[in-house]
From TrEMBL:
Pfam families: Ribosomal_S9. Residues 103-128 are annotated as: Disordered. NCBIfam families: PRK00132.1. This is Small ribosomal subunit protein uS9. InterPro entries: Ribosomal_Su5_D2-typ_SF (IPR020568), Ribosomal_uS9 (IPR000754), Ribosomal_uS9_bac/plastid (IPR023035), Ribosomal_uS9_CS (IPR020574), Ribsml_uS5_D2-typ_fold_subgr (IPR014721).
Length: 128
């Protein structure tokens, strides 16, 4: 069975995406895409790479995603799908790259420092 693999990461989420020839079924952690993400509006952006290259009905996607929240998972899945499509056909890179779908967002949460409430938020200054 032929399949194409791509790994996507965002914040602390990691998505493993397997694209196999099929009818457009998408399964995330054993659930359908809609059931896994519920009513999350941002979730449809995860499928943008498939729409951008017009192959949404030619592949079934089997995805396992861990870590982070739903928003980070959506972005990780998007990058994983884009990378899997490039593994399928390197010529698709020309359509995906200008749209920014092959770029890993490097932003991570800054660590909390001692003496602060959060990473940078200091306690309120008191003159007296």
């Amino acid at each position: 069975m032929e399949q194409y693999y791509g790994t996507g990461r965002r914040k602390t989420s990691v998505a493993r995406v397997f694209l196999r020839p099929g009818t457009g079924k998408i399964e995330v952690n054993g659930k359908t895409f809609g059931d896994y993400f519920g009513g999350l509006v941002k979730a449809v952006s995860a499928l943008e790479p498939l729409r951008r290259v017009d192959v949404s009905n030619r592949f079934d996607a089997y995805i396992t995603v861990k870590g982070g929240g739903k928003a980070g998972q959506v972005d990780a899945i998007q990058l994983g799908i884009a990378r899997a499509l490039v593994n399928y056909n390197g010529d698709l890179r020309a359509k995906l790259k200008p749209a920014g779908l092959l770029s890993r967002d490097p932003r991570e949460v800054e660590r909390k420092k001692y003496g602060k409430h959060k990473a940078r938020r200091a306690p309120q200054y008191s003159k007296r």
